[in-house]
From TrEMBL, chain A:
Residue ranges of domain FAD/NAD(P)-binding in the record: 45-163
Domain Sulfide dehydrogenase [flavocytochrome c] flavoprotein chain central intervals: 175-288
Protein name, per record: NADPH-dependent 2,4-dienoyl-CoA reductase, sulfur reductase
Pfam families linked to this entry: FCSD-flav_bind (PF09242), FCSD_central (PF21706), Pyr_redox_2 (PF07992)
Entry-linked Gene3D superfamilies: FAD/NAD(P)-binding domain, Flavocytochrome c sulphide dehydrogenase, flavin-binding domain
Molecular-function annotations in GO: flavin adenine dinucleotide binding; oxidoreductase activity
Transmembrane segments: none
Extent of the signal sequence: none
Flavocytochrome c sulphide dehydrogenase flavin-binding domain boundaries: 365-429
Keywords: FAD, Flavoprotein
Source superkingdom: Bacteria
UniProtKB/TrEMBL annotation, chain B:
Keywords from the named record: Electron transport, Heme, Iron, Metal-binding, Signal, Transport
Sample GO molecular function, one term: electron transfer activity
Residue stretches making up the Cytochrome c domain: 25-103
PANTHER family reported for this sequence: CBB3-TYPE CYTOCHROME C OXIDASE SUBUNIT FIXP (PTHR33751), CYTOCHROME C4 (PTHR33751:SF9)
Provenance organism: Methylophilus rhizosphaerae
Signal peptide as annotated in the record: 1-23
Record protein name field: Cytochrome c553
Amino acid sequence: MTNNTSASAAETFSRRQFVRSVMYGGLAFYGMPAFARASRPPLGHVVVIGAGFAGLTAAKYLREWSLGNLRVTIVEPNPQFISCPQSNLVLGGSRTMDELSFSYALSRKQHDLQWIQDTVTTIDPVNKQVTLARGSLHYDRLILAPGVDFDYSRIPGMTSPVTEIPHAWKAGKQTLLLRQQLESMPDGGVFAMTIPQGAYRCPPGPYERACQVAHYFQQHKPRSKVIILDANADITSKKGLFLQSFQGAYKDIIEYHNNSEIIQLETGSKTVRTDFETVQADVLNVIPPQLAGKVAQNAGLANVDQRWCEVDFVTYASSAHSEVHIIGDSISAGLPKSAHMATSQAKICAAAIIDIQAGMPPNPLPVFANTCYSFVDDKQAMHVANVYRYDPAKKSMVSAEGGGVSTHASSQEGDYAQAWAQNIWADTLT
Amino acid sequence: MMNRLHIGMALVCGLSWAASLHAQDSTAQVTTTLAASCAACHGPQGNSLGGTPTLAALNKDYFIQRMQGFKNGSIPATVMHQHARGLTDDEIIALAAYFAAQPRQTPLTAPHQAFQGAQ
């Protein structure tokens, strides 16, 4: 699977089958329902790098919608799927990491995905070749879904990761470490969190996190403080809703400070200096500035401000290489970097690749939805919901009329948020 | 509209009937792709794991009635009015037909596993 010879043999066979099907199979399509076209010729080999929400969804729907006529190989270094959505609830104490951890086995089996647990070393878009730590792969189409990478070079005083100062912005060990630090912190302590300027994964995530930590403090350490040092000019998502919590239930705990970029950070004492103040924290959470995943950067695909990847929103093809598609958090878009968005993009991309491989034009006007919930405590949540349509003049996905946010956080929406999680996990992982 | 556009394109290009057949498939795929965007809350092919309505095998007229009600505000909603208002009437009709045609089944649950310590 990882060696060239067998991959080429499989592709030669596919092409022969393709030609034969075109020659003899054409008439067989007539009168058959679209879904029964099992004789559809093989449409080539797609390699998907990254099995998060975006990559795994693309792989599933490439197989399903091509009726198995596209071969799909996934390359993913991690042994299991960890959900970033709801990982802030681990900090608040109402979720465990086990509840957010899933096996890839069912998805592999259900969709007959070829799976390589490995890391990518280089991509050669000219020869359509991916080199892995332990082998190489040839593709007809490549999908990159590497998520975000962290840019520590922009943090004065902390230009490389420091174990004691977790980001917890990719769910897993880091989430547990931050939770342990909060548990060990004495009552009356200070939890400080820094939010980077510009695009980052999960726009409402930092404010949800502040609420979750405040919820934990309220229950267990009521004299403690949450200080949000936001490099942005204002709350970047669900502002009015988060202010209801910051100024309501958590008014004695949360302090929100805008325009608070890190001027200097002292890692030993966990001290952050901004233009306005110096904050010494007991527990410090630095959410680093972000950019496209390393795989995309190394392949020269991060061509917007050298941070994010420019794509065509009809096919998600990179503007640098038309046979390399990029989906999810790595792309440059006026779209929130959310899990639902990643899966919606993945589905558009999968449908477009099937059309292209079949020699047909992809849908020129894609439409999709995004719904994103944030929890303010263990039960109450609120949402932002929008439909997005492709605007050919602007060459971007534009928010349709009628979208919006909740009027207030509620337990009813908390139940919806749990239903969202169960359903998007099932859609992605089965 | 998509239907006409695709068939129109196929005719202009002088493609065979086989290609226009694919064009019809493409129209169906456009709705399938749009409907797939609903899965985050309503489950795969509209089979919800609970907490939100199952849309699979839902009566087509009822789907349209509800969605139009969300869209024009006559049916109160927490979330759905914001999605319904973003969809065209044609899209709502196409989605109604798509979900009505999906078999109602018990969806598979995502397979939980003990956390193994990554990242």
